[in-house]
Amino acid sequence: MDFQKLFLHSSLLVLHFAFSSSKDTITMNQTIHDEQTVVWVANRDDPIYGSSGVLSIDQHGNLVLHSYHNLKVPVWSTNVSVEATDTCVVAQLLDTGNLVLFDDRSKSTVWESFDHPTDTMLPGMKLGLDRRTGMNRFLISWRSAADPGTGNFSLQINPKGSPQAFIYWGTKYIWRGCPWPLKSYTDISNVSFVNNQNETYMTYSVSDASVILRVMLDYSGLVKNLIWHEKDGKWNEFCRRFECDCLPGYEPKSPREWNILKDASGGCVRKRLESTLLCGHGDGFVKVANVKVSDTSAAVWASTNMSPRDCEKNCMRNCSCSAYASIDIAGKETGCLTWYGKLMDTVHNGEEGYDIYVRVDAVELGNVFLPSTNFEQNQCV
């Protein structure tokens, strides 16, 4: 059957790109029609057939959703008791993505979507139990990639004993997180776990206001950390364990993409571009141990029979030589492999890797205790 649910939602894309020209509030006698991109669904199990939905505040002060073709019977309502007169109740979509119903006179919150999450956790949202009200907030996956109906998986904070996070398939847990107290950690996001007599919950904030980040429990039961990459115009998964680094003498081309977005695809550039003019003025080599050596497409075998010392001298004589490796060739002698120009795809490879010696200027060489210092991290250049 060809139908589309009306998703009452806060759109991160719209929040980021279009809210300067969009309504963020509605009052009585005003309406809002459908939008795009979903992070929260009101009527996930009560679809409106077609694509015409109307969101408004009724005479009782409730936020209600109707089909455009049937304005008498709501398909969804906040269903709270509000003493309202005329225009005292207002619904507002905040920049946080929280849809809030509040009393415009007292500014007190009557209802908010952050208390009723679907499959997505946004910064500032709490997952867990409020013992004062009995409200338990948790994520429930979509039924499928295209159907936001209630799915099979849930992400919940179990407050019993030492609180911990669980992913459930129905009523059976299939994954358990580390128990409280968790170490709060900071990278692109500040994650914290609160446990006291009033509340047990997990929350997170974003350390850079320009970053758009969301946590989603997808329909297959996987938790995904998604970050918006503006240059690509799409969401990418965010890896908290980011183990890339630049080779000695290099630095990220885009520090923001590297350090905040955890995206190393832009590569690295020399820290001091004028270094190419300083060849023969105190430059040298820094050892990067046990790696899958850089892409050899543009590399040159200077010799298949050359000592490590002579290999270094060979590379030093040519100012275009950016690195060298002295490699034992099975059944033969020790060869000298040299690189000219960019060093691409250098990855730490434990005991099976080779040592590569990267050319650096005098300043960089002075920052290294010894020219043979090991530099054993993943290299994404």
From TrEMBL:
Signal peptide, first to last residue: 1-22
Highest taxon of the lineage: Eukaryota
All copies of domain Bulb-type lectin, residue ranges: 1-114
Keywords: Disulfide bond, Glycoprotein, Signal
Ranges where the Apple domain occurs: 279-361
A Pfam family reported for this protein in Swiss-Prot or TrEMBL: PAN_2
InterPro entries documented for this protein: Bulb-type_lectin_dom, Bulb-type_lectin_dom_sf, Pan_app, S_locus_glycoprot_dom
Transmembrane domains' residue ranges: none
Official protein name in the record: Bulb-type lectin domain-containing protein
Organism of derivation: Hevea brasiliensis (Para rubber tree)
